[in-house]
Design goal:
This protein is an alpha+beta fold. The protein has a single domain, classed as Alpha-Beta Plaits (2-Layer Sandwich). The protein is about 30% helix and about 30% strand. The longest helix is centred in the N-terminal third of the chain and has 20 residues. The chain is globular, with a radius of gyration of 22 Å. The N and C termini lie far apart (about 70 Å).
Length: about 220
């Protein structure tokens, strides 16, 4: 009798397992490049209002503990406008963070969001959010092969350890493999510090603006 009922019991258990509520997604770190979208309106007052709303949304997300850093950058090509680091359980949740931001919602700026590992995160304690200072962002483009990945990581850890850079993120997708930040504004010295990076990969050093204390 027991054997006769086993298939039915197993089927019932399988059905129950299929109906079980999946565990909630675990929040993860995301690195966002804000990029140029469609042309902004010619109405200066409207653009100024969007800019205020853009900043206010950053402040809201920071107060909620979802956003850790944000600031504009100087891309020579004019494509990338700034960076944002946030924590979200999914890309859909992340995109929802920016629904109050008309700049993003209406496509004047787009979100290029990539899952990331904060090897040494930008600082969020004791910063002066009322102003910004010029620093440098260093982008290491992803090389064709990853045979030297371990050596490259060791090289970058050395730069962090010596204080050449103060924050470092590894990006899991896309053309940029590593993003680092330095308080120094000596672009030539930073480029020289990255000479000999194992595995190759182009290194780009651009101007970046963040609140004082975010990069240490």
């Amino acid at each position: 009798m027991l054997r006769r009922h086993l298939p039915a019991a197993c089927a019932a258990l399988a059905a129950l397992a299929g109906c079980a509520t999946p565990p909630p997604a675990v929040p993860r770190d995301w690195f966002i490049f804000l990029e140029t979208g469609r042309k902004t309106p010619d109405d200066r007052a409207a653009v100024a209002a969007m800019q205020r709303g853009h900043i206010d949304n950053f402040k809201r997300l920071f107060a909620e503990g979802r956003l850790f850093a944000a600031g504009p950058m100087r891309d020579p090509a004019g494509r990338k406008r700034g960076i944002v680091t946030v924590r979200a359980a999914s890309l859909a949740e992340l995109q929802g963070y920016f629904q109050p931001d008309e700049y993003v919602r209406e496509g004047y700026m787009t979100l290029n969001a990539v899952p990331a590992t904060a090897q040494k995160a930008l600082n969020t304690e004791g910063i002066d959010a009322s102003r910004v200072e010029e620093v440098r962002i260093v982008q290491v483009l992803r090389p064709a092969g990853d045979g030297a990945a371990a050596a490259r990581q060791a090289f970058l850890r050395g730069l962090v350890g010596r204080g050449v850079v103060g924050a470092w993120y590894t990006l899991h997708e896309g053309p940029v493999a590593e993003v680092l930040f330095a308080r120094s504004t000596d672009t030539a010295a930073l480029q020289a510090a990255f000479t000999g990076l194992p595995g190759g990969g182009e290194v780009q050093v651009w101007g970046q603006w963040l609140s004082p204390g975010v990069v240490r």
